[in-house]
Amino acid sequence: MSGARSYYAGLAAEHLVEQVYERTGRQICARRWRGSAGEIDLVARDGAEVIFIEVKQSKTHAMAAEHLTERQMARIYGAASEFIGGEPAGQLTPVRFDVALVDGQGRIEILENAFAA
Questions:
Q1: What is the dihedral of CA 69, 74, 77, 79, to 10 degrees?
Q2: Which residues contact 84 (CB under 8 A, 6 or more apart)?
Q3: Coil vs helix vs strand at 42
Q4: Residue 110: its pLDDT value, please?
Q5: For residue range 42-59, what is the model confidence (pLDDT) as tens digits?
Q6: What top-level class would CATH report for the domain 3-116?
Q7: Among residues 28, 106, 34, 29, which one has the least CA distance to residue 75?
Q8: Is residue 60 a contact partner of residue 15, using CB atoms and an 8 Å limit?
Q9: CA–CA separation, 26 vs 49, rounded Å?
Q10: From the CB of residue 91, how many other CB atoms can be counted at a distance below 10 Å?
């Protein structure tokens, strides 16, 4: 996939995932949030809980899941820690890390609390 095509496919996948979260009553509070440690695709709120969402897009859900590396997870953890530093409860803020897999047909599979596994 070319760089530009891949970029726009990623944006489209993020938009689809954003709609799923909003339909389930969660508010998207940041898109492509960037801190010194890295970028988080989407940040949502579910009451007091902050949900950090990594979106992975590929031909199949399995192929999309293979794109998430330990290095990326560490980067997301670092960025998330920086993000919640600005929350009223700081590091005591309840958080969850979800991975949203988007296949070539636009079907979405959300793995809630995926980093805990």
A1: -100
A2: 50, 90, 91, 93, 95
A3: strand
A4: 97
A5: 999 999 999 999 999 999
A6: alpha beta
A7: 34
A8: no
A9: 10
A10: 9
